[in-house]
Amino acid sequence: MTLHCSPEPVEALLARWRIESREPICAYVYDLDALQRHVRWMREALPHGCELYYAAKANPEAPVLRTLAPWVDGFEAASGGELRWLHEQQPAHPLLFGGPGKLDSELVLAAALPDCTLHVESLGELARLAAIADGLDRNVPVFLRMNIAVPGIGDTRLMMGGKPTPFGMDEQDLPQAVAMLREHPRLRLEGFHFHLMSHQRDARMQLDLVRAYLDVANRWKAAYGLDFAVVNAGGGFGVDYADPSASFDWLGFCTGLRGVLDRHANGLRLRFEPGRYVSVACGWYAMEVLDIKRNHGEWFAVARGGTHHFRTPPAQGHDHPFRILRGNHAPLIEHERVTLVGQLCTPKDVLARAQPVEALAPGDCLLFPLAGAYAWNISHQNFLMHPAPRMAFLQAESMAEEVCYVRAGGPNQLGRTAASPSSLPSPTQAT
Ligand SMILES: *Cc1c(COP(=O)(O)O)cnc(C)c1O
Q: Which family does the entry's similarity section mention (predicted)?
């Protein structure tokens, strides 16, 4: 098992929508059953002594969090907004609060939450947090996020550490950080945090990194006489969009972890906080083809929606894989290469370029897999004021629930309300 998610439940829903709906289809569909199977598989493969958190910035939709909740130890927030949202949605789960540029008000909020660990990114942030914690009658758990160079791990485009970045503290700052922790007993150092790679597809290299994290944490423990129990080894497990089976080898990694833990943990627990690898496969973006045209010798299919909903292809700089669900019309083109675009008045609104298709006609549906992470929530949704896509969450028991996105106020105030059954045809009737 890897990052596979069967299209069948999604295609069945789309076929039904096609009959019901008078408007061309434009939707996100999330397969919550597939998500549950996947997170469960990830969890069950992890060796004893490891914790699994979900980095909510990959996809913070409430049904996604709800589906993951029984299988994760908690959730990671990368902003004050996410922290509030996670606390509201999952009040019983431990939270982690990381990310650069935290406001004092957000530090106050995090310190007041019943079970929230702060990932401190700099000496300045540690000083601000210390001043806040001094006035409290409870301890505040902190991890220091460190940016270290790991010998033997070459610099790649994907490295987020071991070179100058805004993330984490330099090892040179550690003596001062430790001194500050000692002066402010309300701050309780519970561990160190490392997130040096994103899009990591090499399980061996990730094992080397984890080993290095454990070794350096144990070295600091001894050198500074520290008492902490956990190393957070971050997320960043990579997805190969063109060939999902070449994505990060989670099972191989978990197998290798046992040996690493045996030899290097020395009593420390390991914590992971992946986002993309957890939720990417459960989401699909569907667009109905509105128009097919030839322009200066090349074919274009213009479909309902675009990168204002699904920015993943330009964000990754790739041609996103897709499937075609043929409609009732005779093909307008056959055995041609076609560029798939959306409705935006910009040449950047491209989801895949010059792709070979067997047959395509207006009314066909383009179905993009691997749209469950860094997709809808990284898109510039208000650009051109097109309506939001339809949202459906497939689950065996309830079949589906639907959320309608309502625009309100500023970019951070995207109102979320449940659609009233009368305003949208409800897929809950689907079987
Ligand atoms: C974004 C982020 C993650 C999750 O990264 P993925 O690539 O989605 O797994 C985890 N930890 C930190 C600190 C992050 O910034």
A: Belongs to the Orn/Lys/Arg decarboxylase class-II family.
Q: Residue 78 CA: which ligand 1 atom is closest?
A: 15
H/E segment holding residue 333: strand 333-341
CA of 5 relative to ligand 1 center, distance in Å: 22
8 Å CB contact between 353 and 300:
no
| Whole-number Å distance between alpha carbons of 332 and 294 | 11
Could you tell which of 198, 199, 241 is best to mutate to test the pocket of ligand 1, judged by most ligand atoms within 8 Å of the CB? 198
Closest ligand 1 atom to residue 193 Cα is: 13
Q: What is the pTM of this model?
A: 0.92
Q: Is 395 helix (H, G, I), strand (E, B) or coil?
A: strand
Residue with tokens 């004092």: 104
State in Å: Cα 401 to ligand 1 middle: 28
φ, ψ dihedrals at 284, nearest 5°: -135, 140
Whether ligand 1 lies within 6 angstroms of the CB of 234 is answered as yes
CA 152, 157, 161, 163 torsion-angle sign: positive
Q: Which tens digit of pLDDT belongs to each residue from 185-228? A: 999 999 999 999 899 999 999 999 999 999 999 999 999 999 99
Is the C-beta atom of 193 inside 6 A of ligand 1? no
For 223, half-sphere exposure in the C-beta direction (CA atoms, 13 angstrom radius) is: 10
**CA–CA separation, 389 and 28 (whole Å):** 6
Dump pLDDT digits (tens) for 258-280.
999 999 999 999 999 999 999 99
Nearest-atom number in ligand 1 for the CA of 238 is: 7
Q: Which fold, 1-32+280-431? A: Lyase, Ornithine Decarboxylase; Chain A, domain 1 (2.40.37)
Closest CA to 421 of 394, 395, 397, 401: 401
CA angle 303, 364, 61 (to 5 degrees): 60
Task: List the chain domain ranges.
Answer: 1-32+280-431, 94-274
Report the catalytic residues. 345
CATH topology of domain 94-274: TIM Barrel (3.20.20)
